[in-house]
Amino acid sequence: MRLLTSLQPAFIPIFKKLPTEQVELWTTHQQFARLLADSEIASQCLIELNQATTRDLAYTHAVRMLQQLAFLPENIPTLPEVSYQAFKNLAGAFFYPRLGEIINILLLVEQLQPDVVLVHNDVEPLTRGLAMWARVHNKPCLHIPHAVYMDTPERTPMGTDVHDLVTATHIAAAGPYQAEWYMQRARAQNQPTEIRMTGYLPADRLADLKPFRADALRLLNLHDRAPVITYFSSWRQDTNLLGCTDSVEEGYHAFLAAAQARPQYQYLIKCHPRGQNVQAHVEQAKAAGVQCVVSDQHLDVFLNATDLTISLGPSNVVVEAACFPGMRLAAINGFMEDREVLTCTADAASIGAAMDTAFARAPYDNTAFVTKYFGPIDGRTAKRLSNWLLELGNISNAHHSS
Amino acid sequence: MNDTLQTEMIEVMAQHLNFLEGWSNIPPFEVAGIAVPRLFTYELIQFCNNAWLDHALTGLEKVSSDAPAN
Fold first, then answer.
1. How distant, in Å, are the alpha carbons of A9, A40, A100, A323 from that of A34?
2. What residues contact A159, with CB distance under 8 A and at least 6 apart?
3. A95-118: per-residue pLDDT in tens?
4. Phi and psi for A201 in degrees, rounded to 5?
5. Distance between CA atoms of A112 and A126, rounded to whole angstroms?
6. Given its phi and psi angles, is residue B68 left (phi above 0), alpha (psi -120 to 50 degrees) or beta?
């Protein structure tokens, strides 16, 4: 089986379970091939197939497409003139730096003729291209989402966020929530798609939790005489076509105000690993006079030290936190239908009330909550996914039971 | 964004989507069976949405600046 994968380090546990003698692994990016080599997984990179003739052909195609832009009509009656004129004036500039490279990759995929395609999303141009290629050529494309996307009351209608797009032929849903989420979208887009619940790949590490609270507290310079609250902040994501909000700043500001009024608790601030906004969080905490530890790394250390998590919105990290015994959960405008999570709004009084309520009662059993979003936490998701890949590649998995 | 503007924008966005998904479905844009510009549909929708929104908001500002001072 010739398997082509997108750049996703989280897939490494899956590849380690594939029979090397029956699977030829290819990657879209050289840096991923190097990472796989470091993990002692053999792979090849698409770029190895690239020759001058392929590159020339790609740019010839690109030029041909750019030339077509000269034939755009003066107006389109069904479109607002202002948006069409903006498109007409700048389409060339938009496509010029993008077409050659993406066409080159498509030509290489066409040359490679993979049996199975694997992607971590099917909405970015490259990964969407891989998924489209698979569909057009009647090959399976398995999409293993890198997160469980969740709806909130403020969420704009289905179809307005790039994550709503379904292109892959097969989707590995973590649990029942995500399976239903994708079924709705696949139906709305008339996209025949097989969806299976496989569990959430990053949660395999949580199956055999060995808590280290005392060490975590020591590492964070905290003590065990007062509860620890971790605030999970976020970052601005520009995937919604109707724009993004100031909720990151508003939520954090409200949290700091609530924390300032409650010096009896200890505070940790966990920023998103790709948010690049740690310094901003530090400065705001200093300005508010809230003593806390701020980081965008060391999630497991934070979770081991935490008694109550408060997240901005329905973050996946809340579900990860729920895997820790005795964890109390709260969210600003998230998980409204889940009794395990105290929901609050982005104001200090509401967040403060959630803090006090959480510690006034015993923590819930979060098992059902975790299963709803992540599926089974049994450490076998990587195995299920590798079996599915073998099935899609028509390789007998009689010797690879789950 | 207020509810009225958002409702209008959702309707406009549907027009943008219909146009962008359709305009590139011609042979010159096809490579390996794929209409290549469709890979950028969402980026292009964002672009058109922003252009439309800028224009719509500019119109709103003009109305408010015409209001008589108290």
1. 11, 10, 25, 33
2. A188, B17
3. 999 999 999 999 999 999 999 999
4. -55, -50
5. 16
6. beta
> Looking at chain A, which residue has its C-alpha nearest residue B23?
A72
How many angstroms separate the CA atoms of A95 and A146, rounded? 28
A160/B13 CB distance under 8 A: yes
Nearest CB neighbour to A102, from listed B12, B39, B49: B39
* Complex-level ipTM beyond the 0.90 threshold: no
Judge: A133–B36 Cβ closer than 8 Å, yes or no.
no
Q: What is the pLDDT of residues A330-383, one digit of tens each?
A: 999 889 899 999 999 999 999 999 999 999 999 999 999 999 999 999 999 999
Residues A96, A66 contacting (CB under 8 angstroms): yes
Total CB pairs under 8 A between chain A and B: 105
Strand ranges across the sheet with A328-332 = A293-295, A266-270, A228-232, A308-312, A328-332, A341-344
CB contact under 8 Å between A90 and B47, yes or no, is yes
CB A193 within 8 A of CB A166: yes
Q: What is the pLDDT along chain A (402 residues), one digit of tens a residue?
A: 999 999 999 999 999 999 999 999 999 999 999 999 999 999 999 999 999 999 999 999 999 999 988 888 888 888 888 988 888 888 899 999 999 999 999 999 999 999 999 999 998 899 999 999 999 999 999 999 999 988 766 666 676 667 788 999 999 999 999 999 999 999 988 889 999 999 999 999 999 888 899 999 999 999 999 999 999 987 655 455 444 556 778 889 999 999 999 999 999 999 988 888 899 999 999 999 999 999 999 999 999 999 999 998 888 999 999 999 999 999 998 898 999 999 999 999 999 999 999 999 999 999 999 999 999 999 999 999 999 999 999 987 654 444
**Nearest C-alpha neighbor of A332 from the set A252, A243, A214, A222:** A252
**Amino acid of residue A179:** A
Distance (Å) from the C-alpha of residue A260 to the closest C-alpha of chain B? 31
Query: Read out DSSP for A135-170?
Result: HHTT--EEE--SS-----TTPPPTTSBGGG----SE
Whether B37 sits inside 8 A of A110 (CB atoms) is no
Is residue A266 within 8 Å of residue A223, measured between CB atoms? yes
Q: Which residues does A324 contact at the CB level (< 8 Å), separation at least 6?
A: A209, A211, A303, A304, A306
Distance CA A65, CA A94 (A): 12
CB atoms within 10 A of CB A70: 7
Instruction: Count other C-beta atoms under 10 Å from residue A309's C-beta.
Output: 28
- What is the per-residue pLDDT for A156? 63
